[in-house]
Amino acid sequence: MTAPVVGAPAGGDVRPAELAAAHPDWAVYARVNEGSAIPRVPVMERLYPFAVSFGEARVIDRWERVARVAHANFLADHGEDPAIPARRPWDKGLADFYKESNIRLVRTTLASAVAVGRTWGPLPSDADPDDVAPTPEQFDAMVEREHESWRATLLAAGWRPAARRDDARRTHPFLVPWAALDEDGRAKTRSSVHDALELLRALGYASRPQRTAVAVAVGPGPGSAAGAGSPGSGRYRRRGEVTAQRVSAPWRWTTQSGSVMEAQAGDWRVSDGERSWSVRPAEFAASYRSAGDGRWRRIGTVNARRAEEAERIETLEGVAIAATGDWIVEGDGGERWIVPGEHFAESYEAAP
After folding, report:
1. If we measure between CA atoms, which residue out of 91, 107, 97 comes closest to residue 200?
2. pTM (two decimals)
3. Which of 14, 16, 164, 246 is within CB 3.0–4.6 Å of 122 for a Cys-Cys bond?
């Protein structure tokens, strides 16, 4: 179901956020005063803010504004240094890679809050501070997710772990799994997530517990008779193996519903023996581990729900149509894709 386009009131995106939080199955397209084209990935639930602009002037979307403030806070703590690429001001030489890294932090914070059982909505005037803040356990899980998202992004961009950070050589001492990260690295990640949450709260968005918990049990699998034990919406763990190869030129592939997807140069071509599809480098690094001999093991957990009717889904590769019975899967970075119903039980199992 799609809600009508909603214009933001003078106070901000309160009404669109309320709709998105109250009706997570709705796609809410909200016109805002500052923004860009409709984003491929929603900023919360299924909220897609966009702005109408004229002329050649570049508009700044809401999440970039949060990212700019986050970077300004970083510079306030560490100082500007034109000789260090990551410590240049946003509009004075900061490379796109570092800008995107700041924006990724904001989007990952939004997505990881949902992944640990929270939702996003407008900040009530009488909000209880304990209600709008993640629990210590949830915050720790969000911090770990942020580190793994950051790590996967840098590894996909050619960075490697080393004893010292060197931006020119693309080395960083924190590029290790969370379990191996020292306390200095963990403290810096905690600070980044804390600052992102505070900035989002200042913008008017609150992270609150979801109203109800979803009990998930995997039964006979898609296509079997419905009833107790049938899989439902919730958190799932990826399983199984695939073959994959990185492709050096753009290419197209077609979903089972007939949607044509656009893969970019450098994307991975993944196959389970029956189907082939593309995966962007950052998402591939976070979702697969080498099993040797050209095979890759699926890793990580995702949110997923079954489509009750045909739906139009914005993916990283373009617009795709989910048929009734297909599964709509969402990664920790907010990216979405469709898994045919007959393949879902083979590749996903309920997360504990």
Report:
1. 107
2. 0.50
3. 14
* Tokens encoding 94: 């900061």
- Give me the pLDDT at residue 24, please: 63
What pLDDT sits at residue 212? 40
What is the reported pLDDT for 267?
92
Three-class HEC string of the chain: CECCCEECCCCCCHHHHHHHHHCCCCEEEEECCCCCCCCCCCCECCEEEECCCCCCCCCCCHHHHHHHHHHHHHHHHHCCCCCCHHHCCCCCCCCHHHHHHHHHHHHHHHHHHHHCCEEEEECCCCCCHHHHCCCHHHHHHHHHHHHHHHHHHHHHCCCEECCCCECCCCEECCCCCHHHCCHHHHHHHHHHHHHHHHHHHHHCEEEEECCCCCCCCCCCCCCCCCCCCCCCCEEEEECCEEEEEECCCCEEEECCCCCEEEECCCCEEEECCCCEEEECHHHHHHHEEEEECCEEEECCEEEEEECCCCEEEEECCEEEEECCCCEEEECCCCCEEEECHHHHHHHEEECC
pLDDT value of position 152: 84
How far CA 202 is from CA of 14, 69, 123, 128, 197, in Å, comes to 13, 11, 9, 15, 9
- pLDDT for 52 equals 45
pLDDT of residue 32: 53
Report the pLDDT value the prediction gives residue 133, as an integer from 0 to 100.
Answer: 83
Sites in the chain below the pLDDT cut of 50: 1-5, 7-14, 33-38, 40, 52-60, 212-231
